[in-house]
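Q: Please design a sequence for this.
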């Protein structure tokens, strides 16, 4: 009888060990993060007349992150920008940028980005690659990203911060307007530099 009890106890112990092994081996559930728009910004700059820079922002945008890891390695990222919200502090220039010479905001009101890869390089440095769509033209783009870390705010929300920088050739996306100075230089450069500072809040279950 004692032998049967001992065998039963041993079998139960083995079952519990296997169950714990499965629990440890199972991957962490992915976490969802929503953009905190009030603590985020989308900026861009272009060379003007070869000698200076013109800067601008987009005021309306949104983004989401789905991350399988606590450090965001291999996270999936999506971002969108309302082209009509462009602001360079000059109404006439903004109207020109919204016209068919550039964005054609009436026909193509949204820019979109969807990630294909988000990899940690070293420390808090990451590389973000994905597909950007402007004027219904989709091209691969790459951003250098600095992960600022994760913290809980005074109201119990978990926040994560990122700074992304990259550049595109505007003409590859159909923004082809150009004019030349007397010296032959471009009035507006083909290269557009982007600086995106964002804060995300972990979605509450």
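A: Design:
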């Amino acid at each position: 009888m004692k032998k049967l009890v001992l065998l039963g106890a041993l079998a139960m112990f083995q079952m519990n060990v296997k169950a714990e092994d499965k629990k440890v081996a199972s991957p962490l559930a992915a976490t969802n993060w929503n953009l905190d728009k009030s603590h985020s910004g989308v900026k861009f700059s272009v060379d003007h007349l070869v000698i200076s820079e013109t800067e601008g922002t987009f005021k309306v945008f949104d983004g989401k992150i789905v991350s399988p890891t606590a450090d965001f390695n291999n996270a999936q990222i999506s971002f969108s920008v309302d082209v009509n919200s462009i602001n360079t502090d000059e109404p006439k220039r903004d109207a020109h940028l919204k016209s068919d010479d550039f964005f054609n905001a009436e026909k193509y009101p949204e820019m979109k980005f969807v990630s294909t890869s988000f990899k940690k390089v070293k420390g808090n440095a990451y590389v973000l690659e994905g597909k950007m769509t402007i004027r219904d033209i989709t091209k691969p783009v790459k951003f250098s990203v600095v992960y600022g870390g994760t913290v809980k705010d005074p109201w119990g929300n978990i926040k994560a911060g990122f700074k992304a920088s990259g550049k595109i050739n505007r003409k590859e996306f159909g923004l082809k307007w150009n004019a030349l100075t007397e010296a032959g230089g471009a009035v507006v450069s083909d290269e557009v530099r982007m600086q995106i500072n964002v804060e995300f809040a972990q979605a509450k279950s």
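Q: Thanks. Anything notable?
A: Confidence is low (pLDDT under 50) at residues 2-7, 15-27, 180-186. Helices lie at 2-25, 91-98.
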